Amino acid sequence: MSAPVSLVRRRMGKFRRLRRGYYSFLLITGGYLLSFFLPLLANNVPLAVKYRGEYFFPLLTYHAAPEFGQNAFGDPEYRSLKQQFANAGEGNWVLMPIIPYGPNESLLDVPGTPPHAPSATHLFGTDDRGRDVLVRLAYGFNVSMTFSILVMIAGYATGISVGAALGYFGGRLDILGQRGIEIWSSLPFLYTIIIISSVIVPVYLPGRNLLLQPSLWLLVVILAAFDWMGITYYIRGEFYREKAKDYVGAAIATGVSEAGIMFRHILPNALTPVVSFAPFTIVANIGSLVALDFLGFGLPAPTPSWGELIGQGMENLTKWWLVFYPLGVMFLTLLLVVFIGEAVREAFDPKEYSRLR
Amino acid sequence: MSDVLLEVQDLTVHFPVYGGLMLRRTGEVRAVDGVSLTLHRGETLGLVGESGCGKTTVGRAIINILRAMSYGVEITGRVLYHHESGVIDLASLNRTAMRPYRADIQMVFQDPYSSLNPRKTVGQIVEEPLTIHTRATPAERRERVRWLLEKVGLSSHQVDRYPHEFSGGQRQRIGIARALATNPKIVIADEPVSALDVSVQAQVINLLQDLQQELGLSYVFISHDLSVVRHISDRIAVMYFGKIVEMGQADQIYANPQHAYSKTLLAAAPRPDPSSARARRLSSGGKR
């Protein structure tokens, strides 16, 4: 016998061998982690400024325009400041991010009227308010992923707890609980959410580069409240089956607490449906968010969102970059996540035969 | 030798049968129907009977895990445990009140494949009772786990392995190590060898006997295999349809069974000597 192999490690090994899913996983996680550093990569605020021998870091501390000798109020125009410093040649400089445009910045200095077609400076063009589409899509990726992961965590936490209780305690609680879930599931989820989010007005907090608006949390809670039922059936079934096994009897005979048996003994053996459904849940949640944003009931106005961009494309069908790029990015993301899900499912399949390789 | 450790008095276990939309009771299964037993210190009590006669349920009632395992089960009667501090009726205790006595009464389960949690290492499985019932430090616990594994004939460097890496016999040894972790006085062995190969059966039986000698254990040995029970038991109780039909010294029961069912049961046991005529003669007797 070689080194001890846990079931988890064996499945991870198998997942890694399913290369399409594994590379999709690396791409998505890598992209998601990178998207947290977007303010350093795509922003209209520079990383550093040297002015009159002093260094400034406008990302960390706010500086008004007059501090850099600009004749204006409020935010400095850093791109023109860079130009100005370069022309003057006094040793002052501005270090801009790779893409020097912010997600909520209307580019009014571009010739013509927005939306602007793709060009060398704006690869994906601009939207109907003159905001860079590429930058907004990138920020939107972070928002969409964060949102769907949060909804998934909240929904699974509820679903697993409820399913575990139903399966473990059984009896009347189980019967009543299941009927309750069936009633709750029969509510038309999208309409209910539209009603709720049109009653609750999103609160807009003024602030720069604010990725997580307070109403994102609200939307997470609302969506999770309608998204936890699916997993309960699986968890309930798993708990029902596992509870009858002797290792649970042994744990009871040892005096392990009820919660200990449920969460330390049975749950690790009941996680297969959770793990194999997780990627598809993320896909569904991204879809829900895009749908809500498309209809205008999603995240509050300036938040970079895919649904809102797709909505713009719908209104400006001739402006192909507002249709093609948002849909393309969404399609690509969902496709990659589905590849992950496919590979996870395959890795958890007890049959050794593999279709994906 | 004769002092009593455990007394089961008039134990009945009924599993309700539910039906209909709102889970109304539509009937019940009388798994155990008025069983009384006595277990003396240091002895092995064999509990035999055909499958489905309620042997396992008696064992599970003694360690008081039925209420936690199956919804709505009805238990009457008493399971008196003669503890140093007095006589306690285990059947009346709830989960929390039962906890201190759990260390004294442990069980070895029938199926070594489902009785070990597949997600835990051998070390974690054997260590858990120690974490709950002793105040030993992690280092002391690890030391004890190693000692226990050596004791049941496994190697102490197998602590980090998972159950699926062991054979059936080895798994049953792990189950025995878990049962012995807290120094129990009573071990309920629920068909501990029925899932094993015959060659491995003997090893596990010998191990159980050696451990009994060394640690002064009392066994309730549940089995349908008469030759195994005869080999290990001091006294034997024969169960049939939830009742004990005959109880007595092992040799006596084998030599001179009184109840018709005992006779049939003994006659049904396969004999290594095909020329033995006794089996044929008796098997025509009390078939139900």
Walkthrough of the structure:
- The complex is a heterodimer of chains A (357) and B (288).
- Chain A is an all-alpha fold and 357 residues long.
- Chain A folds into two domains: 9-19 and 26-34 and 134-347, MetI-like fold; 44-96, no CATH class.
- Helix content of chain A is 60%, strand content 3%.
- Chain A has 14 helices and three strands.
- Chain A has helices at 7-17, 19-35, 38-41, 78-88, 133-169, 171-185, 189-199, 214-225, 229-243, 246-254, 258-266, 272-295, 306-315, 320-347; strands spanning 48-51, 54-56, 93-95.
- Chain A has a three-stranded antiparallel sheet with strand order 2-1-3.
- In chain A, a hairpin with a 2-residue loop joins strand 1 (48-51) and strand 2 (54-56).
- In chain A, helix 2 crosses helix 14, helix 5 packs antiparallel against helix 6 and helix 5 (133-169) runs parallel beside helix 9.
- The longest helix of chain A is centred in the middle third of the chain and has 37 residues, at 133-169.
- Chain A starts with 6 loop residues before the first helix and ends in a 10-residue tail after the last helix.
- The model of chain A is unreliable at 208-213 (pLDDT under 50).
- With 288 residues, chain B is of the alpha/beta class.
- In chain B, helix 4 packs across helix 5 (138-151) and helix 4 runs parallel beside helix 6.
- Chain B is globular and about 55 Å long.
- Mean pLDDT of chain B is 88; it is low at 284-288.
- At the A-B interface, helix 6 and helix 10 of A face helix 3, strand 6 and helix 4 of B.
